Amino acid sequence: MDFSVIEKRYRKLLLEDFVPFWLCNGIDWEHGGVLSCMKEDGTVVSTDKFIWSQARSVWTFSALYNRVEPRPEFLQAAENSVRFLLAHGRDDQGRWVYKTDREGRVLEGATSIYSDCFAVYGLSEYYRATKQESILALASETFESIRERMDQPDFSETAPYPLPHGWKNHGLPMIMTEVTHELFLTTGDARLELLLDDYIGRVMQRFRHPEREVILEFLDRDFQPLPAPAGTFAMPGHAVESMWFVLRVAQRRGNRQLIAQAAEAMRWSLESGWDAEFGGLMLSRDIDGGEPYMPKGEMKIWWPHTEALYGTLLAYVLTGEAWCAEWHEKVSDWSWSHFPMPEGGEWYQRLTREGLPSDEIVALPVKDPFHLPRAAMLMLELAREIALTERSL
Q1: Which of 260, 247, 376 is nearest to 314 (CA)?
Q2: Could you tell me which residues come within 8 angstroms of residue 153 by beta carbon, excluding any fewer than 6 positions away?
């Protein structure tokens, strides 16, 4: 695998396509934050602001500053979103709200703990750029609030898909694995290592089912199987993303067994999610062959593919197994031939099963500045690490 080609491709994607698109179309310099309710070409269709989109933009522009180039405009864009979040993002109990209007008036309150999770994620990265202790304190305070709320009996604040009574979902321990790890890398707090063990354990021991070669999305409150179709529902891209979260922790710890388990589960998800007729990863599937629990499972969405691009590359670096490189090339070939818009800039976010652009809304009517740039930045980091290792040999 030629990592120099990967580095060149994704650096160009970031700096020549993604950044100009968002600095031109997405930054709300007047009121703060980003305008992410837009068409594929950047045309704004609503000025409503989902708070997790604002927090994700903080992560992306802070990471561009920290990990790619320390350009002032990157930090200015991050600061612009931070100001909006600090002024309008939380309710009187300190919980992060779900949606505001352009000026920051709350349209929907604390109905999604994912807003809180992405606030911790974005603020942690912003702290690395600015070293503002108040920002780190807010991230840590929010993290503790998430921990307390998510384990309450019958917790359901997971919009846009609220959890039904008595259910647990894979998404919460999954995102808490990544959020906890990033906060640990920011603070070095040893207590977070124990919490990582807990969240990884929930993912790998509860939702991962080797006997069926699947990571399930839903279980009951005791982590036992649910009846179909919820109990047979899987999201291949979600599973791949979850497994690279686990791989990064296992890599830092040098845990070869966990690396092997996570890579194996990633492979299951790619094999089961790939569309043999039209190519690409389908959004969801029913492991018994029925109709998936959530609609539009046959669609080809950008984020599962970006997660698979980075996940397979990381798995290859950590295992050296040929299937990782083969899947990386397979996903890359399909993605690069279908998702880039002809006029440049961002990628299409939604395609039909056949691979044609679609304006159907899936989950939220947003075009977030997150999955694509995150994958590109993480692949750049891997490519640089490989280059440094090769030069030292």
Answers
A1: 247
A2: 221
Q: Determine the Cα–Cα distance for residues 41 and 243; give it in Å rounded to an integer.
A: 32
Say how far apart CA 204 and CA 98 lie, in whole Å: 29
Contact indicator for 219, 225 with CB cutoff of 8 Å: yes
* 164-338 CATH choice from 3.40.50.2000, 1.50.10.10, 1.10.10.60, 1.10.1060.10: 1.50.10.10
The torsion defined by the Cα of 156, 249, 225 and 114, in degrees rounded to 10, comes to 20
Query: Quick one: 194 exposed, middle or buried, by C-beta within 10 A (0-12, 13-18, 19+)?
Result: exposed
Q: Per the structure block, which two tokens stand in for 26?
A: 């997405």
In this predicted structure, which of 21-35, 151-165, 285-299, 378-392 has the lowest mean pLDDT?
378-392
Query: From CA 247, how far away is CA 318, in angstroms rounded?
Result: 8
Give the single-character DSSP code of 231. G
Q: What are phi and psi of 66, to 5 degrees?
A: -75, -35
Whether residue 160 is preceded by a cis peptide bond, meaning omega within 30 degrees of 0, is yes
- Per-residue pLDDT, 35: 97
Q: What phi and psi values does residue 370 have, to the nearest 5 degrees?
A: -145, -70
Residue 143 has pLDDT above 90, yes or no: yes
Residue type at 279 in one-letter notation = G
User: H or E stretch including 116?
Assistant: helix 113-130
Q: Where are the domains of the chain?
A: 14-124+137-162, 164-338
- pLDDT beyond 90 at 389: no
Q: How far is C-alpha 86 from the chain's CA centre?
A: 22
Of 393, 375, 254, whose CA–CA distance to 10 is shortest? 375
345/375 Cα distance (integer angstroms) = 16
CA-closest candidate to residue 177, choices 222, 225, 121:
121
Contact 233, 225 (CB under 8 A): no
What is the distance, to the nearest Å, from the Cα of residue 334 to the centroid of all Cα atoms in its chain?
20
Characterize 58-78 residue by residue with b for buried, 16 or more Cβ atoms within 10 angstroms of its Cβ, and e for exposed.
Answer: bbbbbbbbbbbeeeeebbebb
